[in-house]
Every structure is written in structure tokens, then in C-alpha cells.
């Protein structure tokens, strides 16, 4: 994972996902979000969540959080400039999937966690994820 900071979109994987999201036809954006989230959840269940999948899932989860009630403060700097996602109803189910994907991405068994730990920057990298989870899991 090439990273230049600890923000959600300050790495190649999330930045590339955001660029793909922006370039996609608006009618395809909901699929990009759900695919990123579902892939992370599925890969984590199989015990193989790679950093690139985790980075994309965190990017999608950040967007879902931003579109959620109380999500206006979620930082999308460096992320998608478009936030219109026709066909994506940001309901409890989508928020729960986004939270599950984000939790999988930061789990100790994920490559994302391993790389940030090895870099000595795990706490810094966790800060924006904590904000995302605060929005996605307001009752937790």
C-alpha cells in the first residue's frame, strides 16, 4: 500500500477507488460502493483481507458515513468529488454492511492493520476510521 498520510484517501488503493467512482456513470456508483463493502466482508470471512481491498472498503464506508445522518463531518479529502449515488439507499442495512467492512479492514488479522502497525502509525490511521464508525454505529 503506497500511502502519503493516514487519512482514508491518502493511499493508492482508496485514491484509485475514488477516481474510479468519480469516473463511473452515476448509475454505476451504487454497485461500486456495495462491491467494495461486500468484497471486504467476504474476504475477511475467508481469513484473507488484503490491504488493497481494505483500503477500498474504508473508502466506500467513508462515503456511506458521509451520506448518513450526522455524517457531515466525515472527511472525504482526497476522496470522490461526486457524492451522488443514485440507487444507493443509505439505510440501516447499508450502514451495517459499511460498519462491518470497516471493522474487518481494521481487524488485527487484516493486512491493513499489519502494515500500519509495522509503520508505527496505527493509532494515527485509526483516527478517521473511528469517526466513520461513530457515524455508522451511533448506538454502539
Automatic annotation (TrEMBL):
The lineage of its organism: Bacteria, Bacillati, Actinomycetota, Actinomycetes, Mycobacteriales. InterPro entries: DUF4259 (IPR025355). This is DUF4259 domain-containing protein.
Amino acid at each position: 500500500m503506497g500511502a502519503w498520510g493516514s487519512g482514508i484517501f491518502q493511499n493508492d488503493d482508496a485514491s484509485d477507488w475514488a477516481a474510479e467512482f468519480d469516473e463511473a456513470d452515476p448509475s454505476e456508483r451504487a454497485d461500486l460502493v456495495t462491491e467494495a463493502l461486500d468484497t471486504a466482508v467476504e474476504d475477511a470471512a475467508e481469513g484473507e483481507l488484503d490491504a488493497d481491498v481494505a483500503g477500498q472498503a474504508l473508502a466506500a464506508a467513508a462515503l456511506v458515513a458521509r451520506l448518513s445522518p450526522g455524517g457531515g463531518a466525515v472527511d472525504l479529502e482526497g476522496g470522490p468529488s461526486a457524492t451522488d449515488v443514485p440507487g444507493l439507499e443509505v439505510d440501516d442495512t447499508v450502514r451495517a454492511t459499511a460498519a462491518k467492512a470497516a471493522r474487518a479492514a481494521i481487524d488485527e488479522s487484516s493486512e491493513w492493520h499489519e502494515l500500519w502497525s509495522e509503520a508505527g502509525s496505527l493509532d494515527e490511521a485509526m483516527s478517521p476510521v473511528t469517526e466513520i464508525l461513530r457515524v455508522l454505529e451511533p448506538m454502539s
